[in-house]
Design brief:
Helix content is 38%, strand content 21%. The protein has 111 residues and is of the alpha+beta class.
Amino acid sequence: MQLTRLAEDYEKIKSAGAVELITISADNQNYAWSMSQTTGAKYQVLSDSDRSVIKLYGVLNAKEHDGIAHPSTFIIDKTGRIQYLYVGKDPQDRPSDEVLVAEIKKAAAIK
């Protein structure tokens, strides 16, 4: 559902100052591609099936489905610094797109 919402709000997100929107899935590449097609994503849906990025960012949920990511959102500024981080407690615990747009505007204003 979040991928569909992000697709619907993609222009708002870009207008807020996002340079790029990328989602990362623990699923294999074919499934990640299928999700992008199903949701109408106008952004990249990347596969991290070996969970290397998920582990690097410290959001691996090893208890579920042989290891998936906790639902996580990172907003990274132009210098590569994380300006916003949200790690959900369960699959439905995610920030709204309105919150993301506000946080992107804050991050975009940082020089």
